[in-house]
Amino acid sequence: MKRLFNYNGFYVWDSKILQNPKIMFIGINPGNGNPENDVKKVITKPCQQMSYLEYLDGENESYTLAKETAEVFYKNGYNKEEVRNLLNEKTVKTNFFYIITSNQTLIKEAVSKVTDFKSFQLQSYIFTADLIDILKPDLVIFEGKSVFDMFKDYDDCTTCEWFENFGSMQRLDGTKIIGYSRNLNKYNNIKDLDGFAKYLSQFL
């Protein structure tokens, strides 16, 4: 029987919930590469630790985005234990869309079968903006230009700049947001990792 929906459930948090974290990572949506994300359930409970620590623990060395995220901080002078502490004790991670799909292009396809995608996108922005307002992170990092662009389209940011592969905006309340482009391949890795690491140094 042909599947009607190309999704594997909903997954909200990929970390603990912390008030006033140093960093808040926001991806586009949960991928189903993580076995926990392939359970056809709605999961809203916070995690004990973010999934990037699986790479640091040697449990998932093929987790490219986790590896490159750690590398970005190594390039800014952090050692492995400092990165671990940062990610586990001072960071929260969620996504703009909570629906789990195997790739980004399937998000709209899956959502459009049950509701208007534009309305869903607006509601996703509202949820994301509310979380930022509630948690009050020092810095928000959007993991992909598509997230950056969708948030920018709705938010009343006071400044916004985008270079070739990374950029930043500032919200009315002063919250600083940066983001980077990703390669649309099976690894979805960071474009211009060295350039983004240098750009990030201005905000740490």
What's the gist of this structure?
The chain is 35% helix and 17% strand. With 204 residues, it is an alpha/beta fold.
Kindly describe this structure:
It is a single chain. With 204 residues, the protein is an alpha/beta fold. Helices cover 35% and strands 17% of the residues. The protein has 7 helices and 8 strands; from the N terminus they run E-E-E-H-H-H-E-H-H-E-H-E-E-E-H. The strands form 2 sheets. Strands 4-2-5-8-7-6 form a 6-stranded mixed β-sheet. The chain has a two-stranded parallel sheet with strand order 1-3. Strand 7 and strand 8 form a beta hairpin. Helix 2 crosses helix 7 (193-200). The protein is globular. The termini are far apart.
How are the SSEs placed, and which strands pair?
Blueprint: E1 9-11, E2 23-27, E3 41-43, H1 52-56, H2 64-74, H3 80-89, E4 91-95, H4 105-112, H5 117-135, E5 139-143, H6 145-154, E6 159-162, E7 166-170, E8 176-180, H7 193-200
Parallel strand pairs: 1-3, 2-4, 2-5, 5-8
Antiparallel strand pairs: 6-7, 7-8
